[in-house]
DNA sequence: ATTAGCAGTCAGTGGATGCGAGTGCCAACG
DNA sequence: CGTTGGCACTCGCATCCACTGACTGCTAAT
């Protein structure tokens, strides 16, 4: 069984390896940390850790590096969620302080997070499922083309271009708009969809196909899930940590750009006691990211939930990054209205 | 002086080097291309090309690679803008076919362009300077916070969150909205700004500070230049071509994410006779990209201009990429309303 | 349980060597 | 004068080898 000191050894191995990128040996441990025992004793502890598959040796005669399981134990039991430095708090304040709209807030947040962690940062758009319809507007683009704009009471804006089979005069359009607004403004998303599906245009049957087209587009907009959208920043950091990936980082970057994979990954992550959820190395193998770790936390915007987090090599500074993810998530929730 | 055959030699050197990434020697030229002369003759031509600084030898005894100047001559005089393959045209159609809104069109375009060229692709948002105000909407978020939404007749939507110094009741807000709509709807952006600056709220002087805040925000929205926004795709391609950059690609990726540098670069590029503008290698040194080439073309959306293009290593397939940039720019212009 | 000592392992380094691709130059040729 | 074959020369590059140094695992003593 691994002793308490053994766990201390694991902790310093993780810390030193993360800091130096070099396998750490028994000698350097006793040199750098005051364990009060000799290198040979540490070696015995390390032999136990290796038996438990918490550390491994890249080559027969070299220092040890943590395994995925080692990182897991570190994250679950050994990492101290060190609070952000005043400078970092300051950075959050000034960075997110005044942003114009939701888009900009999210872009700033994701950049901030990538700067705080030196990793790739990701922020998912909040869903609009709990929002209510605030206003519907139609903008004629050409004779047969209109832009439909849906504004929700949580401040979200959804746009769609509608191609009409034939021209629709402005007068009718205004009428349609007024009628539809009356029909759905104030309704929740689900009710609004239902109301639209049932709507019939009285008195002018030949317009019905047009109306159907418009209402179905609107229904589509209402049902649109903005949660399928991610903002990303800090891809350059992935290049910086390239050596931590055995192969090329090409597939990793590809997966990030693809977004679909990451959205699934985000969806499956649970929130643990600290509010930050961590998935390490091969735990992500199913998503094609067997050498990456992902830290996420949930945040809320006007009662709508979404996630944000960072992605980087398994060898990363978990303590700092978990704290940063948590801090940004909290600040963002506060900024966007926690509810 | 460089003969016609000499230019042919330059052409095949560029083509072969781009294809193989290996310095090309006189022997491989006569092997692979039917020049009808011996390797020694080609060597003489190559000596001339080297004198003109169009090609260079990485090492004393190795094949030659094109210099920046060599690429320049190739692009200006030797590249055949080969038309897209039917498969590629097909890809454009299906890829851009039905997209919901401007955001989605641009995202799809940039992904498409990166797939066609296997490089990093960039699309600048079209400006809204020529657009007219279509509608203004206010959405109360909290007691003292409202979202202001500006819709233009070109289909653009600008949002801003306004923090009020004290609460504003819904009734007044509706009134303000109606009044402002009357004041600016239908006006061009410049006129609308002027109209707002002059607006005074009659009858309730204590509301004036609030009104000022709102109108100044609106003016800000109207003046917002969406052209300072870029969409990017295909960063993974930069990793794939990493060996073409002598140092790390880190600063390159950083510059791309920074956007500011690229927007300046975009701004300074001219449109040449093909409609595609090319900036090669050290021509971009001032932007911190001395080993990259940038191809751009303008496109128009409802009369508003913007640029789009690709960025990659100097060693890239200019013929194919110029054709792709041009094709996507044209298709996008058509899709968004050329005017 | 801890420690000192020691033999064994193996990655990484630096120097020597040989190979081959490709050039530059020259003399000859049509 | 342009073109050609021939030949010596130059380097980059891969290979090999021996050496070094960092670390471990084991054992016997404390």
Concise account of the structure shown:
Chain A has 339 residues and is α+β, with helices and mostly antiparallel strands.
Count the DSSP helices of chain A: 13
Shape of chain A: elongated
**Low-confidence region ranges of chain A:** none
Structural class of chain A: alpha+beta
Strand segment count of chain A: 10
Helix coverage percent of residues of chain A?
40-55%
Q: Beta-strand level of the residues of chain A, as a percent range?
A: 15-25%
How can the largest sheet of chain A be summarized?
5 strands, antiparallel
Distance between the ends of chain A: 47 Å
Strand order of the largest sheet of chain A: 7-3-10-9-8
- Quaternary structure of the protein: homodimer
**Biggest interface, residues from each chain:** A-B, 39 and 39 residues
Order of helices and strands of chain A: HHHEEHHHEEEEHHHEHHHEEEH
List key phrases describing it.
homodimer, alpha+beta, 10 strands, DNA-binding
SSE blueprint:
The structure is a homodimer of 339-residue chains.
Chain A: H1 4-20, H2 26-32, H3 39-51, E1 55-56, E2 65-66, H4 68-78, H5 86-96, H6 102-117, E3 120-124, E4 133-142, E5 145-152, E6 157-163, H7 170-184, H8 189-198, H9 208-223, E7 230-233, H10 235-240, H11 250-258, H12 260-268, E8 276-279, E9 292-301, E10 304-313, H13 318-336
Antiparallel strand pairs in A: 1-2, 3-7, 3-10, 4-5, 5-6, 8-9, 9-10
The structure holds a DNA duplex (30 and 30 nucleotides).
